[in-house]
Amino acid sequence: MSESDKINRDVLDLKQECLYGPVKSRRLKSSLGINVLPADGKLCSFSCIYCQYGLTQKSYHVAEASGIPALPSFDQVEAELATYLKQAPRGIRYITFSGNGEATLHPEFPELVDMVIRLRDRYYPPAKTALLSNSTRMTDRKIRDAVAKLDTPIMKLDAGSKEVFDRINRPAPGIEFDGVVQSLIDFEHPNLIIQALLMGGDRFNATDDEIESWAGLIKQIDPREVHIYSLDRPSAIKSVLKLNRQTLESIADRASEISGVEVLAF
Q1: Phi, psi values for residue 155, rounded to 5°
Q2: What are 149-199's pLDDT values in tens digits?
Q3: Closest CA to 131 of 99, 153, 106, 146
Q4: DSSP single-letter state for residue 78
């Protein structure tokens, strides 16, 4: 880590509950969050330099989670969600897997998806189901099949090259850029959304060359649409630079032209 990449200690606190919100989201409007991850540390296959929760601790920076203590149990999540949905306020548009890291790392993620859909259908049919994911577990067929059942899978792809992927997402050992991209190309879902956080700086992902490479990958993946945004909260590394609205909209126009996919700036 260079001198310019000093760690930012002023990041957000982790979620302490299985359920949180409803959150007023820029993209999902009113969204009930489901956190199936530990409360004592971010569990993630990435350690992104822009993460609002800071860098991932080494013991929780994994490609697959086994033997991780303090994970919410299936029964706990089911009981809390059923109780909430029975008396949920009107206006919730999404029930969203998100929380303290990468939700698909939970060992029972496929079963959790089935349970959430079942409870949604029983108690709150108007809501759609969604996932905010970093895409790394999409190389696992069981995870892909589970994600396919959700109404709106929102999958991350921040980089157009392995070099930038490794630099900004800092994947856990065993995760390869080409494998993640190919899994997204192979994933066919009518409502697939790709999201990317873009940041300024010569080493990061908003350079002309990187945007061109990234948009070329978007063309191959062919999602319903793409959402790009920049920093809205504290970042793990202080050197990350926020892009202004005008720059984001210019990138969205260029990426749309290259990929043939609608790219929306938020």
Answers
A1: -110, 140
A2: 999 999 999 999 999 999 999 999 999 999 999 999 999 999 999 999 999
A3: 153
A4: H
